[in-house]
Amino acid sequence: MQPRVAQLVSYLDVTRDRLLNTVTPLTPVVAAMKVRADTWSAEENVAHLAIVEDRVAALVSKSVAWAKANGIGPATSDASFMSSLDKFGVTDAKFKLEAPSTVAPDARPIADSLAALASSRARLKDALIDGDALDLAQVKRTHQAMGDLDLYQWALFVAQHEERHRRQIEKTLGDAMELAAECAPIV
Fold first, then answer.
1. The domain containing residue 167 runs over which residues?
2. What predicted TM-score, i.e. pTM, was given to this entire model?
3. CA geometry: angle at 92 spanning 87 and 96, to 5°?
4. Model confidence at 130, in pLDDT bands (50, 70, 90)?
């Protein structure tokens, strides 16, 4: 496996493990809890991630097929691209962003979203591995907020976006714990 794809697959695994460690212990009631009307619950965050990753996995898969059909050659660089999205602050959950309605969370149990994420992650990794012999930096598709991203960056976006929402989930859970402590009866 070429270094860039190996690096991506590893990072995708790390961010997914972090997300699962955060949300797997949650009960359905806690996962659905919202402490403020302007924030998403853990369940809604995970549903949003499932929708986004499903779309990106399809985009990468179709784009790899296009690259093969259109003679995209082998990678010419193995330089790291892991900081290529830093200017967009994808992982920084401090900045509130408005998700387009097309990727707004739907009403589904967190277990269903986690199953969807497992499926989309497998498809995304399969597409990257399928394109391993190609220079995926030469295949660009437009992200509505970040402009043209190559396929390495699209996969990086998925991992960083997941980390962003994991941090939002942790903040929501922390806020809920603080609220519960404030409401606890004094004995």
1. 3-182
2. 0.89
3. 105
4. very high
